[in-house]
Design goal:
Pathway: Cofactor biosynthesis; FMN biosynthesis; FMN from riboflavin (ATP route): step 1/1; Cofactor biosynthesis; FAD biosynthesis; FAD from FMN: step 1/1. By secondary structure, the protein is an alpha/beta fold. It contains ten helices and 13 strands.
Length: 316
């Protein structure tokens, strides 16, 4: 559920109490998934509802916008990923300067206990909330002892010998390491957007494309280039190839996402589609004329089909 600033009741009246966790949960990666699985299991065990409390926008966009990261799962991408988690409720709390000024005890009392009926709290070992992130594990355990709620600390998980974190996955995506990003996320890195009208150059070249407009400028994208992708539409999922970046052969410097779907026909204008980045094929570059570009697109298509035909672990 999305919570407005003026809402008086944040949970249905029949919810007697919750087992809660709090955080940005950007990416909903394997570490987050572990926390949420433990949270849900505990809630079932004690007969309470499981609850995730997160924020919009990302807290750093308010408290220190100069260092606020681009996001793995902005807006509804995060909600879509959380839909698979099995958590009973997701509370999206508007993050404001007022909320940023709350001490940890205020956040616990006014938000978690009063509004969200928190009875138990799950937190990561390095978690902190409240003003200056002062509400660390030690402080929260003290608050729990004083106010009568249980605090469980969840240790991080590792993948390929590395601790899984949103920061590490952002670094992998920004550097084009799609394999490491997928290992951390537990799924391919992707983007969701709406199909919009383009210049229709691809159709004239024999490679019609979907022009995908992203809903948020905060979305983190991998480096510009040509990618093998899987595109998920309301009519099914298709392999394809995608150009991320400008179209220098046509003198077009606009950064865009254009995906050509293999073995698919249809009108997807206005529809929301998901794009999974499977492998980077090459740099975006300028060609000496349309014929050279079309020849390269043919090679790209063959390369992308080969990559997509491989087992997932080898598609890199």
């Amino acid at each position: 559920m999305l919570l407005g600033a003026d809402d008086e009741s944040w949970l249905p009246p029949d919810v007697g109490g919750t087992v809660a966790t709090v955080g940005s949960f950007d990416g909903v990666h394997r570490g987050h998934q572990d926390v949420l699985a433990r949270l849900s299991a505990r809630a079932r065990e004690v007969g309470l509802r499981s609850l995730l409390v997160t924020f919009e926008p990302h807290p750093l966009e308010i408290v220190n916008p100069d260092v606020a990261p681009h996001l793995l799962t902005p807006g509804r991408e995060k909600l879509a990923a959380l839909a698979e988690s099995g958590v009973d409720y997701v509370a999206v709390v508007p993050f404001t300067r007022t909320l940023a000024s709350y001490e940890a005890s205020q956040f616990v009392d006014l938000v978690l206990r009063d509004r969200l009926r928190m009875r138990e709290l799950f937190i990561g070992h390095d978690h902190g909330f409240g003003r200056g992130r002062a509400g660390d594990v030690h402080v929260l355990q003290q608050l729990g002892a004083a106010r009568g709620f249980r605090v469980e600390v969840v240790e991080p998980i590792a993948a390929d010998g590395h601790a899984v974190s949103s920061t590490a996955i952002r670094r992998a995506v920004a550097g084009g390491d799609l394999h490491r990003a997928e290992v951390g996320l537990g799924r391919p890195y992707g983007a969701t957007g709406t199909v919009v009208q383009g210049e229709q150059r691809g159709r004239l070249l024999g490679y019609p494309t979907l022009n995908v407009a992203l809903p948020s400028p905060r979305k983190l994208l991998p480096p510009e280039g040509v990618y093998a992708v899987r595109v998920h539409t309301v009519g099914g999922s298709y392999g394809g190839m995608l150009n991320l970046g400008p179209r220098p052969t046509f003198g077009d410097a606009t950064r865009s996402l254009e995906a050509h779907l293999f073995d698919a026909e249809g009108d997807w204008y206005g529809q929301t589609v998901g794009v999974d980045f499977v492998a980077r094929l090459r740099d975006t570059r300028r060609f000496d004329g349309v014929d050279a570009l079309v020849a390269q697109l043919g090679r790209d298509a063959q390369h992308a089909r080969r990559v997509l035909a491989r087992p997932a672990a080898d598609a890199r």
